[in-house]
Amino acid sequence: MDRLQTLSRALGLTLILSLLGGLACEDKGSSARPLARRVDSVKAERKPGASVDELCDVRFAAERAPTFAWPALAGPTPPAPAGWRWVNLWATWCKPCVEEIPRLQKWRDRLGGRVELVLLSVDESDAIVDAFRKQHPEVPLSSRVADASALPAVLKALGLDAAAPIPIHVFIDASGRTRCVRAGAVNDADLAAVESLIAG
After folding, report:
1. Which of 59, 92, 112, 183 has its CA 20 to 30 A from that of 85?
2. pTM higher than 0.85
């Protein structure tokens, strides 16, 4: 009887946790394309040749794109580039963020100056980022959001859900307008889509 009760409790707990997990992953809705499709595609192995629509969770046509507004930064605002800018929101504690930085640097070099890559940390202090960079000197300098607790508001301003996962990729055209926002890491299949985006 004790075994039956223990098994029954374990099954009940599993069911409750499954239901709660489903609620936590539920798309809360935004003006953008639902994130569920992109999150599903991250879980599955993505096929080469991803399109710009698959790259972006939020995408704006040039004539309707909002002007990109920097959140309050801990240091100076990076100067405007002559061409496209790619802002990558990351954190030292975010494994997918750290793992993709070498890929982003390689892509920036391959794109031959057509896009400027700016890392924007959401860590709580400059000391955390500096300590991380001492252990990982290959990681380039990074700007930092002044108040890490402001991240949900920053994400909502970009058209994402306030709980969207980092890394976040924001592609800004030469006019300073936000054209594409992606929640989650990029993989090798996405380079062609990035090239198409900044060519358009």
Report:
1. 92
2. no
